[in-house]
Every structure is written in structure tokens, then in C-alpha cells.
Amino acid sequence: MQGDLCKVDDIQKVFKLYRFEAVIHFAGLKAVGESVSKPLRYYSNNLVSTINLMEVMSKNNCKNLVFSSSATVYGQPESVPCTEDYPLHVTNPYGRTKLINEDIMRDVHHADPEWKIVLLRYFNPVGSHPSGEIGEDPMDYPNNLMPFVQQVAVGRKEVLTVFGQDYPTRDGTGIRDYIHVMDLASGHTKALDKLFTTPDIGCAVYNLGTGKGTTVLEMVAAFVKASGKEIPLKYAGRRPGDCREVYAATEKAEKELGWRAKFGIADMCRDQWNWAKKNPYGYRGHQELEVHAQKFIKSEPLSNRHWAL
Ligand code: UFG
């Protein structure tokens, strides 16, 4: 079943069909650069969808929610690792939609303490399902590091541009906390367990990261090792808005959710390469992708606000 969270009727239809105990809300637009050029699209899509969903949940007396927030709400933290109580500071409309959504949820819980909410702040998700059947397939230009590396490895792009080589880090490139998507997934099931077993959880927030920082060049080297493919590099200046170094403090999730990441960057790259080599053109074949690319150039970018059941 498919629908659009920006249409209240679509959500109501689903709530008529099933009785839900809880909802995990993942839907949203997520390209930082696009959010700067199209802020209204981001505010409209990412906020209206949440408000509609919470209204329908409330009417149907379903008040357990897990929300996909982001480490982007920390901005460039003054020190690392980032703990959940760090000051929040965003630098672009996408990040602001995550922070406003968090604020909406804190306010809703404050007004009606029957709501139980877990906000999960994702660090940098990477990798694929180990089967190689489910993976990331950007509809348009791959903005994130590893989808771009993957497209270089399968020959769809010629060279990876490394943004910035003069950061005060061990090799001059930016540091992030890359987390395997399977670990991220298990973090959600732990969050649901926590909601169902903790009557006074309120509106709680947890980082989902590994607690380890990896540079861009270390990540590329790990992918080269996993794939046996060469990844040609060229260097450019720093990408506007990029932070030097961000990684998670993981103690709160370990202690309160009983969750910690199991996989390292070698596992992430192995599984991502498995997906890439089986599906070099993602979910669509090469020709379909060409047709899509032509349509895409002529039309509005596809929305990812649709969800499926
Ligand atoms: N990078 C490159 N070349 C590229 C793409 C990225 O060198 O082609 C570098 C970036 O400069 C950065 C690192 O790789 O140093 C990671 O960049 P990503 O774009 O993959 O990820 P970001 O950390 O910028 O942002 C991601 C998500 C956001 C989320 C944030 C949370 O895109 O949605 O993580 O920290 F908010």
C-alpha cells in the first residue's frame, strides 16, 4: 500500500485498516544542498508530513513514536564525541526541519504525557543488506560520500572529488561516524522495545553511531580493499557548510537501549560492494535509468515523501 504523509486522508485510510501500537517515522527529504535552494519544499514536506502523522496517530490513540532524526542537529560540535545533551545548532533548512520536528515532538509530549517518543539521531549510514538485494539507490546526483564512491567503482562516475584536504585531522580530510545500515535497523527495534517497556520514557533522544571517527581517505581505502576497484581521486576545496569532525558518544544508547554497533567500516564496504556489483544501476536497469534521467532533467525532482506498507 502506498500513500503520501502530506495527505491526511492517505494516513487515515491506513489507520482504518489496521490498529497500530507504534509508528517508526522515517519519511523525509534529505539532500542538504537541495534544501538550501528549495527551503519551502523542505519545510512543507518534512514538517507537514510529521504534523499530519501525529494528528492521525493521536486521533487513533496510537501515541508511541520513533523518529529518524540526525546528527546534523549538532552542527559543528565544540568537541567530540557528541553527547545527546550537546547544544543544538543547525546550518541549513534540511537540518532545521529535523530540529523543528524534534521540537514539535517535545512539545506534543509536554502537552500530552501519554505520548512516548524516541528520537534517534543517525550519524552517517553506509552499507547495504548483506544479501545484496536491498541498498541505497539515489534517484539523482549522489551527494553523499559512499553512494558516490560506489558509482565510481561500477564505472558510472569517473572520479571522486574529495572536499577539503586541509582540515586539522590526521590526513587533512573530514571525519565522520559511519554506521552500517543493519546496525541502524537494530537500533530501531531496540528503541521500540524501550518504548514498550518504559512507561515514563517521555521524549527521549539517543545517538545511533559507532563512536569511531573515520576520514574520507580511510573510507575510500576501505572500499578499495573490499571491492578491488580503483577509485580515482581529485581534490577540491572544502564543501560549504561541512564540519571538520563529528562522531557519536554511544554510552547512553548502550546503557539505556542495550544497543551498540556491531559492524566496522570493512563490513560496511563489503556489503555495499556486494549490493553495487549485483545492482550496478540500482533497482532499475541501465536503460530504465537513462529514461528516468531524461525525464528527471525535464521535470521536478522525485519526492521521497512516499511511503509503502
Ligand atoms: N565528501 C567528499 N566527496 C563527496 C561527498 C562527500 O569528499 O563527493 C566528504 C564530505 O566533505 C564529508 C564526508 O565526505 O567530509 C561525508 O560527507 P556526506 O555527504 O556523505 O555526509 P555528511 O556528513 O555531510 O552528511 C550526512 C547526511 C546528512 C546528515 C549528516 C549527519 O548527508 O543528511 O550526515 O551527520 F545530516
Automatic annotation (TrEMBL):
Alphabetically sorted, this entry's keywords are: Carbohydrate metabolism, Isomerase, NAD
- InterPro entries the UniProt entry points to: NAD(P)-bd_dom, NAD(P)-bd_dom_sf, UDP_G4E
One Pfam match, given by its short name, reads: GDP_Man_Dehyd
Residue ranges occupied by any NAD(P)-binding domain in the UniProt entry:
2-271
Task: Using the UniProt record, name the top-level EC class of this enzyme in a single word.
Answer: isomerase
**GO biological process per UniProt:** galactose metabolic process
Q: Which residues form a coiled coil?
A: none
Pathway entry? Carbohydrate metabolism; galactose metabolism
E.C. numbers: 5.1.3.-
Please list the reactions this protein catalyses: UDP-alpha-D-glucose = UDP-alpha-D-galactose
Stored CDD domains: UDP_G4E_1_SDR_e (cd05247)
Q: What cofactor is this protein dependent on?
A: NAD(+)
- GO MF assignments: UDP-glucose 4-epimerase activity
Task: Tell me the PANTHER family matching this sequence.
Answer: UDP-GLUCOSE 4-EPIMERASE (PTHR43725)
State the family it belongs to: Belongs to the NAD(P)-dependent epimerase/dehydratase family.
Protein name as it appears in the record? UDP-glucose 4-epimerase
What organism does the record attribute this protein to? Physcomitrium patens (Spreading-leaved earth moss)
Query: What broad taxonomic lineage does this protein's source fall under?
Result: Eukaryota, Viridiplantae, Streptophyta, Embryophyta, Bryophyta
**Gene name of the encoded protein:** LOC112285445
